[in-house]
Design brief:
Helix content is 55%, strand content 0%. By secondary structure, the chain is mainly α. This is MTX1 protein.
């Protein structure tokens, strides 16, 4: 029953879209974002049971709708919703270096995060640094009151 209702919903969406580019004309609305967010994964994902996916693929206007949005707003992903994005991995499964400064950027990100956390800890009082302590040759500095008592 769930598949039947989902197929019916897809059919109704297809009928409502008709030959328009978007559901409410030539410009996208929040409904388009919502519908696309549900249709694109259904269209692109490899599913164990492809009944609903096959039904969606049979509704050409919804497939064209997804392809149009993908090419318009996600040009790096390609216009074909069924083709995967090209991978930078080599044929042996090793990752290619997409960004030559990737490692440096990761390290800088970690350092900035650590500095920010330490700064927050110091400013909020979670951690405090006490000045003073041991003087030269391992002796503790003498306070003014202790100095007077010794005389």
């Amino acid at each position: 029953q769930l598949y039947r209702e989902a197929r019916e919903c897809l059919t109704l969406l297809s009928q409502r879209l008709g030959s328009q580019k978007f559901f409410f004309g030539d410009s996208p609305a929040s409904l388009d974002a919502f519908v696309f967010s549900r249709l694109a994964p259904l269209l692109k994902a490899k599913l164990p049971n492809g009944k609903l996916q096959q039904h969606l693929k049979s509704l050409q206007n919804l497939c064209n709708y997804c392809t149009s949005i993908l090419s318009l707003y996600f040009p790096w992903d390609g216009a074909d919703p069924l083709a995967g994005a090209p991978r930078a991995a080599g044929t042996d499964g090793s990752e290619g270096e997409e960004d030559p400064h990737k490692r440096r950027n990761q390290l800088l990100s970690v350092l900035v995060g650590l500095v920010a956390m330490l700064g927050y800890a110091l400013l909020s009082g979670i951690v405090s640094i006490q000045r003073g302590g041991v003087g030269p040759a391992g002796r503790r500095p003498i306070a003014m009151e202790e100095e007077e008592e010794e005389e």
